Amino acid sequence: MARVTSADVARESGVSRTTVSYVLNAKHGVTITEATRLRVLSTAERLGYTPSAAARTLRSGRSDLVLCVLPNWTVGPVIDALIDHLTTELADHGLSMLVYNGRSNRPLAELWRAVTPCAVLGLGAFTEADAQAMRRAGIQVVGSALDEDPHPEIFVVPQANIGGLQVEHLAERGHRAIAYAAPADDRLAAFADRRLRGVVAECERRGLPAPVVERVDLDVASAVAAVRGWRSGDEPATAVAAYNDEVALAVLSGLRAEGLRVPEDVAVIGVDDIPTARLAAPALTTVWQAIDAQASYLVASVLAALDENVEPPQRPDDVFHVIERDST
């Protein structure tokens, strides 16, 4: 079905396209009778006319679209929640969000040139070439990173700190031999490798043995194999820091299958505080992430980039903390 254009509205209304443009864009300084205005609006509604995004961009000098670039990550509860918060808060400011998943082979430049966004929000780092090209095109660029970044405009969610918090919590409860449950999905390596570095660094800082690392898929057999690996050797692990809550829940299943008690024999801590964490048996200790605060900061950064009169936001302080439950 052909798209309805302003020419169709003009023809049906018996007026010029210029008049249609003046009415639909509420042009000031021109005289149009109320009868004509109502006829144009009524015809546009009856025909189902909507102005194109490109046309709106040309008229206003800026689109209302924010392109959110998601790297090739799995989309679990946390990313889902972040995207939901971003979409809602941007909509509250009259902005729409389009999510681009980095698993596509399409070059990013092709996409932003096609959709003409007012800003591009990266949930991971952009290449310098991509960032410069977008800025040259007048597009505001807002980025985030998983490690400390020297650029003050980059929002940092330091993943190593999560691993450090896990070890701190377990060590303060007397555990020396701490294992690490890594995810089996390689797409999570950007997060998992950094969290593991935090675990290793905190173990070293406290004079604890290096953690034994096992990859755990989300099934009992994989978890059982990991548990057997952790419990063998001269100093069996008495605690497990898991990559996230889903991996931690698999670990709990593996421990049960091996007849081990949690936390009496082995303590377990996850990350993310997903809803099922509190329903586990025993309820799962986890590292909570301030997803809503992260989303608010990123939205405020976009608004500040678009309007020089808007003050850049202050970075949130309480981004992570441990929620203690029965599993530790």
TrEMBL record:
SMART domains for this protein: HTH_LACI
Where in the numbering of this chain does the HTH lacI-type domain appear?
Answer: 4-60
Coiled-coil zones:
none
PROSITE patterns assigned to the protein according to its UniProt record, in alphabetical order: HTH_LACI_2
Q: Is Transcription tagged as a keyword?
A: yes
Q: Which Pfam families match?
A: LacI, Peripla_BP_3
Keyword field contains Transit peptide: no
Cite the entry's keywords alphabetically. Answer: DNA-binding, Transcription, Transcription regulation
Q: Molecular function terms in GO for this entry?
A: DNA-binding transcription factor activity; transcription cis-regulatory region binding
Query: Residue span of the signal peptide, if any?
Result: none
User: What SUPFAM superfamilies does the annotation carry?
Assistant: lambda repressor-like DNA-binding domains, Periplasmic binding protein-like I
Q: Which InterPro entries does the entry mention?
A: HTH_LacI (IPR000843), LacI/GalR-like_sensor (IPR046335), Lambda_DNA-bd_dom_sf (IPR010982), Peripla_BP_I (IPR028082)
The source's domain of life comes to Bacteria
List the Gene3D superfamilies: 3.40.50.2300, lambda repressor-like DNA-binding domains (1.10.260.40)
Q: What is this protein called?
A: LacI family transcriptional regulator
